Amino acid sequence: MQIIFLGTNGWYDSPTGNTICTLINSEKYHIILDAGNGLYKADRYIKDDLPVYLFLSHFHLDHIEGLHVLSKFRFKSLTIFGQKGTKAALHTIVNEPFTVPLEKLPFPVEVRELSPGPYKLPFALDCRFLVHASPCLGYRFDLDGKTITYCPDTGVCENAVLLAADADLLIAECAHLPGEENPAWPHLNPAAAAAIALRAKAARLALTHFDAGRYTSLQMRREAVATVRDFSGIVVGEDDLVMQL
Fold first, then answer.
1. pLDDT 10s digits, 3-32
2. CATH number of the domain at 2-244, out of 3.40.190.10, 3.60.15.10, 1.10.260.40, 1.10.287.380?
3. Euclidean distance between the first and final Cα of the chain, in Å?
4. Alpha carbon distance 217, 69 (integer Å)
5. Cα 161 from chain centre
6. Residue 81 contacts residue 116 (beta carbons within 8 Å)
7. What percent of the chain clears pLDDT 90, i.e. is strictly above it?
8. Helix, strand and coil percent figures for the chain, each rounded to 5
9. Burial 91-112 (b: 16+ CB within 10 A, else e)
10. How far apart are CA 158 and CA 23, in angstroms?
């Protein structure tokens, strides 16, 4: 299984990368996590007719702004998942006069709305709301005998720990700098993300969604993560990084 970081910035594109988008290439499926501007790179890594599933965490623009490039792809099919209200949000954003509507794309698209809880899709899925300024879903996937958890925009919360329990990989956001906290704008710093991974007994932790206004260089990301002493082997997300799991 491959995990490809197509975009690792939060907020806006910058020399450090595109806004957040992560691709999981498993044996039978392509799973895309959020649709920031990094989404445009997806066809570099999707070269077959396997089904594509896109999971949206919430509707902040840095997580959905890449949707306007969907018309460049030639997927066999696309299923978009998100919280209640996703259909209405996409009808507004992915529609004329802003971009090509979903129904006019060159492949079939289905939009499915999720409530918190476990699901039996072609693969096992669990989703729960995290702590953020806007309702935001975190996801847990069981694929190819591995468990991958995705916790985008969030503060430290019990649902993040539950989703990441015994995961082979936790992909977590890291918008805040070391030592930074803001209860009015919940996000994680490197130590907070590592604390979730430790409590959950996750095997590995990969950080993404580095705030573009705070982390102005890739070196800043590396130095920030190096301050974490109690969880070894943290992967610092960078655009076009490919992980093998």
1. 999 999 999 999 999 999 999 999 999 999
2. 3.60.15.10
3. 5
4. 26
5. 16
6. no
7. 99
8. 25, 30, 45
9. eeebeeeebbebeebeeebebe
10. 25
CB 142 within 8 Å of CB 163: no
Sign of CA dihedral 182, 178, 127, 150: positive
Which amino acid, one-letter code, is at 45?
Answer: Y
**Would you say 127 and 116 are in contact if contact means Cβ atoms under 8 Å apart?**
yes
Reduced to 3 states, what is the DSSP secondary structure of residue 127? strand
Element (H, E) at 225: helix 218-225
Provide the whole-model pTM: 0.98
Q: What are the φ/ψ torsions at residue 55 (nearest 5 degrees)? A: -110, 120
Q: Specify the 3-state DSSP secondary structure of 122.
A: coil
Q: Taking Cα atoms as reference points, which of 131, 130, 224 lies closest to residue 185?
A: 131
Tokens 């907070």 — which residue? 192
pLDDT one-digit tens code per residue, 176-189: 999 999 999 999 99
Q: Confirm if 29 and 1 have CB atoms less than 8 A apart.
A: no
38 touches 6 (CB < 8 A): yes
CA dihedral sign of residues 181, 5, 239, 108: negative
| Residue 216 CB neighbours (<10 A) | 14
pLDDT one-digit tens code per residue, 194-213: 999 999 999 999 999 999 99
